[in-house]
Amino acid sequence: MPPLIEFRNVSKIFGGGLFDKQHTVALEDFSLTIDDAPPLITAIVGESGSGKTTLARLLLGLETPSQGVVLYRGRDLATMHGKARRQFLHDIQFVFQDPYGVYNPFYKVDHVLTKPIEKFKLANSRRDARKLMETVLETVGLRPEETLGRYPHEMSGGQRQRVMVARALLLKPRLIIADEPVSMVDASLRATILGNLQELNEKFGISILYITHDLATGYQISHNMIVLYHGSVAEAGDVELVVKTPRHPYTQLLMDSIPQAVAERTWHKSSEINTPLAPLGGHSGCKFAARCPHVMATCQLRRPPLYLSEAHRAVACYLNDDSPTLNAAHLDKVFIDPTTANGAPE
Ligand SMILES: Nc1ncnc2c1ncn2[C@@H]1O[C@H](COP(=O)(O)OP(=O)(O)OP(=O)(O)O)[C@@H](O)[C@H]1O
Ligand SMILES: [Mg+2]
């Protein structure tokens, strides 16, 4: 069977096209295969504006690529209809950064749960449906009697996020894209929601794409990590390698900005990291060159390819040019699979 999701050389440009000064390259020549077997948790990390949400929206078919293609089971998302589209809508679920936009303000929150129950015939009677909704709400730490019957504006951002996690639980999809699912909740709820995601992965075999700017939680729950900088992969692979011994100067900078003792701190606390991403304006060299302490002449000329520095890590930096290059289309080949003895995917 073709892989669940495939990004093939996907770029997303917002604004008036490549030659318009106002354009933003949100994602550039991005390739990745995401499969459901084995079910892995992959963290996509990067600072604000690095293209994380754009990647999620492309995956959900909410944006169309400017270049390249996103495939679901080998079919182009942009032109997929009928049965395949229906299966896609079941298989891929999401939890958004600010889920308010997902809710229709005129419907009670129940609607978010009853709709998929009806659409995918998950219950035989109204009573069954009610029971199912109560179970999933309780699983994510919400009281059904205080949640059902309310309107979206009557709940907090964190509660709205949890209803979305409950919805994902209901459907038992093949992949959940969680875009900053804990950005609006306090520390204890964060642990609950991240625990829910891990449980979905381990118990139900659901793959998770965990999108965050928070390296600490990315490290906590993921098997593999992709570090995005300005819409390009800076470094990717086994989370242990990427986080503990980062090779890309950008990843190193991010690590240095996290006080070791305060794992909960986020990248944005560092003033260096907090500077907005500057527009690149037709720059053809390494995107990180202007900020890089190790910058060399080559870096200004050409984008670095991905180097396979170790079996389970790829890094887009010329400092690693003694390693073989990795075809960007095979990025997932560096991922570890914790379910096999040696950690290497089949
Ligand atoms: N609809 C849009 N129109 C124009 N520009 C956009 C649009 N959506 C995103 N962008 C731009 O694309 C870039 C990437 O945005 P994206 O939302 O993917 O970043 P992000 O990594 O999710 O950031 P954050 O951590 O703040 O959520 C940004 O420069 C953003 O301003
Ligand atoms: Mg975002």
Walk me through the topology.
Blueprint: E1 5-14, E2 24-34, E3 41-45, H1 52-59, E4 67-72, E5 75-76, H2 82-91, E6 92-95, H3 110-119, H4 126-139, H5 144-147, H6 157-171, E7 175-179, H7 187-204, E8 207-212, H8 215-221, E9 224-229, E10 232-238, H9 239-244, H10 249-256, H11 271-274, H12 297-301, E11 306-310, E12 313-315, E13 325-326
Parallel strand pairs: 3-8, 3-9, 6-7, 7-8
Antiparallel strand pairs: 1-2, 1-4, 4-5, 9-10, 10-12, 11-12, 11-13
Helix pairs in contact: 3-6, 4-6, 6-7
Largest sheet: 9 strands, mixed
- The coarse silhouette is globular
Give the helix level as a range of percent.
25-40%
CATH class: Alpha Beta
According to CATH, the fold-level topology is: Rossmann fold
Write the H/E string, N to C: EEEHEEHEHHHHEHEHEEHHHHEEE
Poorly predicted ranges (pLDDT <50, ≥5 residues)? 261-275
In the sheet with the most strands, the strands line up as 6-7-8-3-9-10-12-11-13
CATH superfamily: P-loop containing nucleotide triphosphate hydrolases
What count of domains describes the coordinates?
A: 1
User: Any guess at the CATH architecture?
Assistant: 3-Layer(aba) Sandwich
N- to C-terminal distance: 15 Å
Mean pLDDT comes to: 87
